[in-house]
């Protein structure tokens, strides 16, 4: 189980690093827009991301 979690964390970091590496200008603009969002909007995005991740994990298993 620990190997799976470590692999998942590593893969997440790879995906998180793709946009800043490939398009730093677009990443910066997206980050600036995120700083202008309300807490509720950011929480909704976080919740949506978690739900999508859980659904994908359930499909994968």
Describe this structure in words.
The chain is 90% helix and 0% strand. Helix 1 crosses helix 2. The model has no long low-confidence stretch (mean pLDDT 91). The protein is mainly alpha-helical and 61 residues long. The protein is built from three helices and no strands.
Outline the low-pLDDT stretches: none
Number of strands: 0
Q: What's the gyration radius in Å? A: 14 Å
- Report strand %: under 5%
Order of helices and strands: HHH
How many distinct helices? 3
User: Which class do the helix and strand fractions yield?
Assistant: mainly alpha
Helices and strands, with pairings:
Elements: H1 2-22, H2 24-35, H3 39-60
Provide a concise account of the structure shown.
This protein has helices at residues 2-22, 24-35, 39-60.
List keywords for this structure.
mainly alpha, 61 residues
């Amino acid at each position: 189980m620990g190997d799976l979690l470590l692999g998942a964390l590593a893969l997440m970091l790879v995906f998180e690093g793709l946009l800043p590496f490939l398009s730093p200008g677009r990443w910066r603009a997206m980050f600036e827009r995120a700083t202008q969002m309300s807490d509720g909007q950011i929480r909704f995005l976080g919740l949506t991301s978690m739900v999508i991740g859980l659904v994908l994990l359930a499909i994968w298993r």
